[in-house]
């Protein structure tokens, strides 16, 4: 109430300013398209008379008698002075757009556009053309290397998979640490549908794969807490604001058509030895090839036989073939060239009051993995109208359908086609397994006794999973200007997702002959309604206020059903009704968050800005006794170049500072108390009802969202007439009361609990520099470089638990953990067994022994950077983008198993004559002997820290070349513009140190970063794009 | 027009503000409509009884793949028969027992009001707890006991490991107290008791019979204490017929808690699966075949042909790396008409086992009454007769068949004590089929039956039969200090490390 009184006071005060003048003039300020400019300022030069234009660009003011000069200014336009003769009382001023300044208007929280110079915090921006230049099917991946402090890593899954975007380091031990995505002001769902963990699994994509990059006008990244504070409990991981393309008023109807085709080629980095074949040491330790088919198949990966000599030998398909290496190109031979094709047709236009854009997008992708496909259709409509100066309406609607078939299984061997493909001995050509069926139509037993190794041709030929997601995202925003200075706004938004998922273990798959099916049908929706009351005006001389108060109600609902059936009654017919039903599960949760918030931006002249925000959130999922939290922020910006006289070569200087407090990790619904449920969905046994403890988590009634506060300082400068600009940021982000989603001893009766004790600290620096190196009418060259370093530390996990396991490698011989005092997500692996002096201890047979688990690296690279070079010559443009990460490590189970299996080239030394070792045994006795290569390298492979590699890389990520057809050429055609572009992605790894795999081969999109195992090969992409405008 | 717009906006804003300004309805919204917040005690008790038998997870991994192959009931081409190590298989019993059975029991005890009408249920739960803890400690050695199961009630997230001696002392005390406190005049749970339908007298016998099993395990490490409690149990009254045997019935489906936990995965996946299926061990088949044991037709069958003719049965050697002759169909599976049904009952503790313990006690000179021969013969007879629980698809063992068997292979009354114990334990080994954990414990305690260990390069024991399973490796991370303290006392976390009662 106080605030409203204050606002009313201000309104009164400012209207008093306009008394006692003597000559009334009227006028209009318009842009080049003759559209009125709102809030332009008109001042009489040298006299204290001023006015501001209304929504249609009109103004009325008193001026002194006689000839006067009016100075007209408006944000985004070049200022202009107009001379008004003594007799003139009407004036019409046309202002030219100032491209430089317009570009410097950025989208901030709740979609509010602000001048970049007024911001007290860092905001990263990406324009639509940056997204379409190297189009990614998943929008999240388009951010890779583009914005300092935004770290993107995508699991190697092909295009339909998810992306992992982490801004300024992970904030929470238990959260996903991914930003909130907001599209046209509406928070949208980015649930990770599935993830490959210790036992494998498929990456089932995320919410960001829904969007068509051609529909995106810009993305704005709110990195720190000061920037995201208005999002309260959702702001902890930063916010990415996405603005979709709109129609333009007064342009008539235009049609844009864009089409592109991409070829994706598998590029295997495996370089296994090709000298020794499938086999093992015989009883006397002599390397001997397998001569028994069962043995050969059971150990299809075991390359400890004798040297290839070309003599006739048994092959895995049961035939006899010369004993030599056939399988050098197994990976390339198994994978195919993938292909994707996408089109967008957009119709847009508008008249003076209304504009629209309607687009249809279509994407089809055939993965490099045979049988894996992804398709997406987007229909997007944007309709905006401002029928009069009081009211404006914006509405956006998107309907998306996404269909995916056979998302690849990763990591562990069942159904992962990359596993046998990777580990096949060189003596086998993978194509010999090409007919994967036995006489019954089940899986032929090429891979021996271990049924959990699936023939890759079987895995890709069978329908293993499919999903369909239908999604509607809609928003409506109505703004009503109650007076020139006071406005009211209402916003409604919905993201409604219907998801169907089917996972099949087909009839005859060796580890589950009867087969099984799981059907899941889910609906996930989020509804937001908010209202704002705003005030925007000068409140005193040189001091302006832009403020609002508002409220939001957020409802989330999740409802679904999961059905499982086993043993297909009629084999090979894959539907639920054809099974012995196993388990049906109801999936349901509902929660609500209500919020009140305010924002106030004060500007003094054009050089000092102060912004204050606050938000109170009430949560349905917290203990009713204490269920609300307040999130404030304050930030300031000072343009010192406006005040201090700077040297000629320095054009602009700004310092900024911001602090904010946000939250994350909202308690799940129903997690306040222990509940009881029927076990496995079964209600009775022997006619007696049964009931058990629900879940294996110890519920904590006092759990609260964790808290993240960031303080940041920034320096923005431009030099040499804006030819060179720099932006430097220092930040410190501290997470307190982190929710330790702690694994607890199973002997407690439970597996996990949640406690608010964790503390995580991220400190970092971000730097960006942009240079317009050459700018002539026909040739230009600009360079952009960004650099980010983030130093993370797990300050505390819990008072009881010093270590938290994020994920184990499948063999449980390496893991990613959080450990007190260490960076976020360290890789732990086994060291050699060592004596008290640190010397390596051997066993009595001269083999290495597994010692302690040690910290062998960190899974997330602290340093990342991107370098872009853009050249244009007449109608040609060339863009070259290089990105790099440094300081991270990766545990490669491919290399570990490759060594254990004798596939790796490092296992060649000692094959003839053994390896001489010397040292001491456990009891300190000397050991001096020659160990066979088999014993040496296998024991070496037990020491898993040997396979934690430095994952630094520098990659030529993308290069694109485009040509705009000159107007003269197309004058006589119906086209207004045509451009053709060629681009290539992942063309060249300029620098890396990991043998056999790509350093970015991580299989998980969870916090457990830094583990690899039998990954899909790297793909190189080649694309041609045609854009046409009618 | 103008007024109308203003009105719409005022309504929208005021609406949003009022909605947000409070938290009305939050408590109701946050009550799970698909779960219960108050337990039904009897229904929880029934599930606890089911959990005492272990679930599919631990039985497939810990029992079928490991323990039952160590003692050569069964065999397969890899895994357990060769003593290889898998952290998941090895740790399965640990996580499951604490998380399912013990947690159910501890939670039920914590919500059960302390009143006379609940007393019998509480005593029954104490007895069931002993079943689970003994299996755990016998399998791993030291385990968390006194601080275990207090994650929710007490917030102990890293419970201390207790010495096996301390655990055994408490197990005996619990059985003694619970057996005494059971009172036929007090209420029980009616038919919610799947074991004995609330027959308190048989529950008392169960407490004492279990005390017999627990006590006898100490014969090697502390014969005096073993003797004391064996005699005490007998004095209090143990099983006297197959009516007393603890049998848990199962349903054929759907998969989950209702089906037989030993056979669930076996029938669904392994029986028809690839090349990895578990077969009867040659050791087991040969012993029964060579003695014309009438039980063989009930136990074994060649699944592919349906042939359960004892003469056709063939066991897989535990050291086999491939199927001899290349055809897995030639090797015997457990009989799918009897023991390997999804709804086959499980024999948690049999009267036969009790008679064998008594026979051994007599041989050891302890005061339990009767002669070793009589106990032995009663045991063998009961072990044959109890197979009727597996249905009538295969003809039951007749009295004549028993007589022929016992006259052909009589109790070695003239033999040495060692020979007698070998004979007794070998019979017990047969009746413990499908209870590999118990057979594995008894093998370690007595060394019987005499088994030829497999020496395979993939094994972790250098050609000796394991002496325990390796702990759940998550303990290294979640309970490091206590785990390390236990290793310090007990010896390295290896399969070859002997536990307290298994000292040489």
TrEMBL record, chain A:
Provide this UniProt record's keywords sorted from A to Z.
Cell outer membrane, Membrane, Signal, Transmembrane, Transmembrane beta strand, Transport
Q: Which InterPro entries match?
A: Beta-barrel_TonB_sf (IPR036942), CarboxyPept-like_regulatory (IPR008969), Plug_dom (IPR012910), Plug_dom_sf (IPR037066), TonB-dep_OMP_SusC/RagA (IPR023996), TonB-dep_OMP_SusC/RagA_CS (IPR023997), TonB-dep_rcpt-like (IPR039426)
Q: Return the protein name.
A: SusC/RagA family TonB-linked outer membrane protein
Species source reads Flavobacterium circumlabens
- Protein's cellular compartments: Cell outer membrane
Query: What topology in the membrane does the UniProt record assign?
Result: Multi-pass membrane protein
User: Which residues does UniProt assign to the signal peptide?
Assistant: 1-20
Q: Which residues form the TonB-dependent receptor plug domain?
A: 120-239
- Record family assignment: Belongs to the TonB-dependent receptor family.
Q: What is the superkingdom listed in this entry's lineage?
A: Bacteria
Q: Which PROSITE patterns match?
A: TONB_DEPENDENT_REC_3 (PS52016)
Please provide, in alphabetical order, the Gene Ontology terms of the cellular component aspect for this entry: cell outer membrane
Query: Gene3D superfamilies from the xrefs?
Result: Carboxypeptidase-like, regulatory domain, TonB-dependent receptor, beta-barrel domain, TonB-dependent receptor, plug domain
Per the annotation, which location comes first and is thus the protein's main one?
A: membrane
Cite the source lineage: Bacteria, Pseudomonadati, Bacteroidota, Flavobacteriia, Flavobacteriales
TrEMBL record, chain B:
Superkingdom: Bacteria
Q: Does the keyword Lipoprotein apply?
A: yes
Q: Which PROSITE patterns match?
A: PROKAR_LIPOPROTEIN
Tell me the lineage of the source organism.
Bacteria, Pseudomonadati, Bacteroidota, Flavobacteriia, Flavobacteriales
Q: Does the keyword Signal apply?
A: yes
Descriptive protein name? SusD-like starch-binding protein associating with outer membrane
**Whose protein is this, by species?**
Flavobacterium circumlabens
Listed A to Z, the keywords are: Lipoprotein, Signal
**Family annotation (Pfam families):** SusD-like_2
So which residues are the signal peptide here? 1-20
InterPro entries assigned:
SusD-like_2, TPR-like_helical_dom_sf
